């Protein structure tokens, strides 16, 4: 879990049966008394495979939904995003959530989660 | 989840929650069939205000006959009053729906009683009865719709709105059992209001209003507001 500007963000493994891509589940909360813009589309993701190599991932977004959106004051939201880019077995995913609050300057904040082997 | 739950209660559910219409298969972006990314992070707002209102009301002249059954006989009385300025106090309940960040609509109901009413002269049309002493009471009923705009300056909200709807004053007299008559009309008011956040769900506010039809028709309302969403979303 991390706090970036007004936004608390927690990241967890969100893998789903029937979906081959690794999925990251985001839970975000606005701790401020005003609305903020949360930008999950700006999150960078990197996978580490069984060989220890790092591969950049891209969110699976066939309908072009991912974009910066307002999050109400003292409110919470969640999203589950699938990532693609590595056909080999992923052992962990790291996401940089440092740019999630558009009202503050982005600085790298990496959070890593282990992925279950399937 | 909390947002979804409250929005479902308020009937503001997303397509994903309208289960009859669309069966969601996944919560993952790109695999969702019904819902869309981020739709529950924001949305319309809903609040309620309960207030004490004090009104100054211009009364039209009254000149009408009312029929009353007394001891099995129908007796007609003529009610007469000159035009005057009166006043009323009452309770006002407002339901406020935020349509966008700065625009809202409201529905409201006001119930009150006249504190100063017209001087009614109630006399029998025929000479079969005695004149009735002026012990008439009046009840005020208003049902209005309004639309307005608002903006926030820190913890203070300022706004203006235009309201319209019917207003009726119902008169009754203990000596005229069963006889009610009313003065009613359309009320169109311009209003300005200010409110201040006491906490993330509660506000206290004041509203001044004046009729756009009669400048003598004014009111002042002090109210307590309950907001379903913290800080109305914080826009």
Walk me through the structure.
The complex is a heterodimer of chains A (118) and B (235). Chain A has one domain (2-114): Immunoglobulin-like. The model of chain A has no long low-confidence stretch (mean pLDDT 90). Chain A contains no helices and ten strands. Chain A has strands at residues 2-4, 7-13, 23-30, 36-38, 44-49, 54-59, 69-71, 76-84, 90-96, 110-114. Chain A has an eight-stranded antiparallel beta sheet with strand order 1-2-3-8-6-5-9-10, with no helix packed on it. A two-stranded antiparallel sheet of chain A has the order 4-7. Chain A is elongated, with a radius of gyration of 14 Å. With 235 residues, chain B is mainly beta. Chain B folds into two domains: 1-41, no CATH class; 44-234, Porin (Beta Barrel), CATH 2.40.160.20. In chain B, the strands form two sheets. Chain B has an eight-stranded antiparallel beta barrel with strand order 1-4-5-7-8-9-10-11. A three-stranded antiparallel beta sheet of chain B has the order 2-3-6, with no helix packed on it. In chain B, strand 7 and strand 8 form a beta hairpin.
Topology:
The complex is a heterodimer of chains A (118) and B (235).
Chain A: E1 2-4, E2 7-13, E3 23-30, E4 36-38, E5 44-49, E6 54-59, E7 69-71, E8 76-84, E9 90-96, E10 110-114
Antiparallel strand pairs in A: 1-2, 2-3, 3-8, 4-7, 5-6, 5-9, 6-8, 9-10
Chain B: H1 2-9, E1 45-59, E2 62-70, E3 73-81, E4 84-98, E5 103-116, E6 121-124, E7 136-153, E8 156-173, E9 180-197, E10 202-211, E11 218-227
Antiparallel strand pairs in B: 1-4, 1-11, 2-3, 3-6, 4-5, 5-7, 7-8, 8-9, 9-10, 10-11
Name its key features:
heterodimer, A: mainly beta, Immunoglobulin-like, eight-stranded antiparallel beta sheet, 10 strands, 0% helix, elongated, B: Porin, three-stranded antiparallel beta sheet, 11 strands, disordered N terminus
């Amino acid at each position: 879990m991390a706090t970036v500007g007004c936004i608390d963000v927690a990241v967890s493994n969100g893998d789903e049966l029937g979906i081959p891509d690794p999925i990251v589940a985001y839970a975000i909360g606005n701790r401020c008394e005003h609305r903020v813009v949360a930008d999950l589309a700006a999150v960078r993701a990197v996978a580490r495979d069984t060989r220890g190599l790092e591969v950049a991932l891209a969110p699976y977004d066939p309908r072009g939904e991912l974009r910066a959106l307002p999050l109400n004051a003292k409110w919470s939201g969640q999203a589950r995003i699938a990532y693609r880019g590595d056909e080999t077995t992923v052992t962990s995913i790291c996401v940089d959530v440092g740019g999630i609050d558009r009202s503050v300057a982005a600085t790298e904040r990496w959070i890593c989660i282990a992925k279950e082997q399937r | 989840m909390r947002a979804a739950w409250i929005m479902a209660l308020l009937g503001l559910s997303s397509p994903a929650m309208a289960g009859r219409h669309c069966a969601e298969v996944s919560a993952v972006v790109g695999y969702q069939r019904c819902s869309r990314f981020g739709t529950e992070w924001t949305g319309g707002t809903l609040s309620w205000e309960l207030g004490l209102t004090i009104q100054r009301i211009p009364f039209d002249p009254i000149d009408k006959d009312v029929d009353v059954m007394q001891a099995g006989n129908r007796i007609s009385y003529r009610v007469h009053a000159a035009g005057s300025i009166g006043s009323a106090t009452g309770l006002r309940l407002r339901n406020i729906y935020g349509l966008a960040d700065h625009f809202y609509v409201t529905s409201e109901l006001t119930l009150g009683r006249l504190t100063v009413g017209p001087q009614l002269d109630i006399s029998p049309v025929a000479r079969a009865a005695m004149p009735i002493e002026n012990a008439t009471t009046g009840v005020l009923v208003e049902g209005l719709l309004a639309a307005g705009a608002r903006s926030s300056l820190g913890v203070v909200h300022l706004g203006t709105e235009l309201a319209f709807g019917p207003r009726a004053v119902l008169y009754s007299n203990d000596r005229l059992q069963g006889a009610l008559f009313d003065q009613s009309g359309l009320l169109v008011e311009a209003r300005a209001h200010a409110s201040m956040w006491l906490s993330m769900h509660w506000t206290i506010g004041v509203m001044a209003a004046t009729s756009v039809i009669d400048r003598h028709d004014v009111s002042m309302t002090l109210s307590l507001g309950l907001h379903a969403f913290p800080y109305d979303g914080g826009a």
